[in-house]
Amino acid sequence: MKLFDSTRIGTMELKNRLVAAAMNSRLSETGGYVSQRMINHYARRAQGGVGLIVVADGGVDLGHVNSHTQLRIADDSFIPGLARLAKAMKDNGAKTAIQLQHAGWRTASAVGLAQAVSPTSLTSRELGQPTRALTVAEIKVLVKQFAQAARRAKQAGFDAVEIHGAHGYLLSMFLSPYTNWRQDEYGGDLQRRARLALEIVAAIRQEVGRDYPVIFRISADENVEGGLILKESTVISQWLEKAGVDCISVSAGTEGVGSSPGMLVPRGCLVPLAAAIKKEVSVPVIAVCRIDTPAMAESILQQEKADLIAMGRPLLADPDLPRKALEGREDEIVRCIYCNSCHRDPPPEGLPIMCLVNPEIGREGETEAKAPQARKVLIIGGGPSGLEAARVARLRGHQVMLWDDAPQLGGRWSWLIRGCISRRVKILKELGVELELGRSITAQTVVNMQPDVVLVTPRAIRPPLSIAVAEGENVIWADEMLDGGRQVLGKVAVIGTNNVGCEVAYFLSRRGVTVTVIGSDEEAGYGLQPRITISLVEQLRQNGVEFRTGFNVRGIQEKRVLYQDSQGHGAVLEADVFILAERAQPSMELAEELEKLGLEVYSLPYCDQPGYVMRAIRMGASIARQI
Fold first, then answer.
1. Which residue, among 94, 92, 208, 218, has the nearest Cα to 153 in the 3D structure?
2. Do both 251 and 113 map to the same domain?
3. How far apart are CA 513 and CA 562, in angstroms?
4. Does one domain contain both 573 and 528?
5. Residue at 368 is within a domain
6. Residue 357, SS3?
7. N or C: which end of the chain has fewer CB within 10 A?
8. DSSP 552
């Protein structure tokens, strides 16, 4: 396979053409210093056989970073930790690069870090914070910061650096007409917008010499009106090559838009951008984004659309993907489902990186502490928190049983993340967790089992109706269709613009049903992760789904939905079938009954939307560690 042929980036020889793309692990110590957890995390990536690992988001400025824990390379005090990090990866067989980044308008000003800056005074649409335009004198300082960061990377033992000029960070803001409205030597036409990037490359070359490999990551198309487009980024790439860049890593998107497409976006969606730039430069080109199998990577290389393949999320889902592919064990590879739980932006509560299909992520090298005494643990409910609680409790040495009254596991997980269920089930079976599905669960059946401890997930029950609904066969609940397979024909009105409403709309629109989604939310998709929402709503609209957001539904009469706008003006929507997509509510009745009977009971968190899945998993693990 060409994928496992050696290749070079400048003077750096790689054993294969697989690159672990930069992804923020959120594992640094406060202040941006390397932690042992971070070292373990990246060492584990290296053990899997990847040729090059790019460490994410090395902040070149102490204050202009995404969070208190973003990795920094802004001062010589960071070199010792960075050296340990680089050594751990190299000792495990991988070449290493570190990304050099300035957060720009993505600076976490709200948590007390520096004020966000940009080429032009703007307001960040992602964070909603105002930015200050950099002066020419500050830009000159910035150039030196990047050069000194490259010097520190080389001194720490990294084999290369990657300049982050993509995804709405500061350098990409200067390159883009969407964010650079300056009228001086650093803004205006393409050449002036590219000046900062070219000056940084020149300064890095002066600091580290011509033989030290430099990669530049660019958003070839920002996917926003007025943003950087492929025609311009191709020219910039040519200029970067002449300035001394050894490799171009081709990505896309800007601030929170298009940089990490989810499962609804076609596989390999950014490969055409890499292929276009490869035709115009002579240095190696890296392709990235939803290239999730070795076979797909091989095809891209064979067609000469790229010289190297970067995988980010797939190597989190299975860090051993390269080794398994090399050994002909592709059927054993754990596939990423592109749920973007690892890549939430901004991350919830500063949590470290996580993965729905690989619970090891963020805790590499750690083992669960054995419980003082093995106990008989019954877990009721196979939602995200129950599945994780079962895994952790079993690792701690308990005898674990998991019951669910549904015929399949997953609870009310959205269709967006069902792909991870089989993986979780496999893990539990390998650990020896006893699974019983589709059984009747009452307080008495629990007592008869005589468990030492019971962990109970709240049952999902339908909420009381908030609107007047006339009785009829044409009014049904979302779960009747999604779980019961009820057939729906004709024109459909979905009441509820949340994640459940979008789920129903997706299910029906793919079957050719005419769907209108109506509700009070100002934007559709509440409860989904923002990056998934953008692509989902766009795809639904392409499938003919109409959204009417910001309306209060008053009632359903025969074949009409009655609703009002924010000013109280009434309107009518006609349809043949009405689907109620209001969120279910949690019921604690079983847990309360068991407590009254004297059992030791813990309540697991209720999870009714994909946006809460990782939090539910974390809480389920935390509860299991208390037993």
1. 208
2. yes
3. 21
4. yes
5. no
6. coil
7. N
8. E
Closest C-alpha to 18, from 94, 90, 99 = 94
Q: How many domains does the chain have?
A: 3
Residue 42 is part of a domain; what is its CATH number? 3.20.20.70
CA atoms of 111 and 350, how far apart (whole Å) = 11
Q: Same structural domain for residues 328 and 387? A: no
pLDDT at site 531: 64
Q: State the CATH number of the domain containing residue 510.
A: 3.50.50.60
- Asked if 444 and 525 sit in the same domain, the reply is no
Query: CB atoms < 10 A from the CB of 402, how many?
Result: 26
Burial class (CB in 10 A: 0-12, 13-18, 19+), 218: buried
Model pLDDT for residues 107-163, shown as the tens digit of each residue: 988 777 899 999 999 998 777 889 999 999 999 999 999 999 999 999 999 999 999
CB-neighbour burial class of residue 220 (10 A; exposed 0-12, middle 13-18, buried 19+): buried
Distance CA 59, CA 80 (A): 16
pTM: predicted TM-score of the whole model, two decimal places: 0.88
**Torsion, Cα of 494, 499, 500, 501 (10° steps):** 10
Q: What is the DSSP track for 22-50?
A: ------SPTTS---HHHHHHHHHHHHTT-
The residue type of 206 is: Q
Tell me what pLDDT residue 345 has: 44
Residues 604/386, Cβ–Cβ less than 8 Å: yes
Amino acid at position 131, single letter: T
Is the separation of the CB atoms in 378 and 453 below 8 Å? yes
Helix axis angle for 613-624 and 384-395, nearest 10°, is 30
Q: How many CB atoms lie within 10 A of CB 554?
A: 15
Query: What is the full DSSP assignment across 561-592?
Result: EEEE-TT--EEEEE-SEEEE-PPPEEE-HHHH
CATH for 615: 3.40.50.720
Tokens 């051993």 appear where? 320
Domain for residue 366, yes or no?
no
Structure tokens at 91: 């000792």
Which residues are marked as active site?
A: 169
- Do 208 and 157 touch, CB atoms closer than 8 A? no
CA distance 139 to 125: 23
